[in-house]
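Entry type: protein chain
Record version: 2
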Amino acid sequence: MALPNFSSGSGPFGDHNPEIRGTPHHGAALATLYCAMMVDHCLDLLQVKGEVIIVGSYLKNPLLCSLICQLRGDQPVFLSSDEAGTIRGVAQLTNWSTPVSLSSQRCVSSEITGLEDYRSSWQEQIRAAI
């Protein structure tokens, strides 16, 4: 299990030192799971209730996207197929009254048994480390 912070002092756990607990069998899988946990955590901190749209470099990792989708439960998660999606999103933030269309497709959730239990354990271990 990877516990934050692996982003050199930024993000919601910027003052924490990174820690890997256990012996990972595959580093890329652990990194993907860590990123999914962090995205899910940040969306919770932001109290996101509506659709989640994944844009940018995260789209290059389909497993990450499907993990985020599973972690968000019934919340709709979409994958942007628009190369300018991030720019369009920023444009929407600067002017709510002007609708911005974004080409996207519905994300298919992973079906990893025990993922929600892993998330609970991850969150508990972070709380214990604080």
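Comment: The chain has one domain: 2-129.
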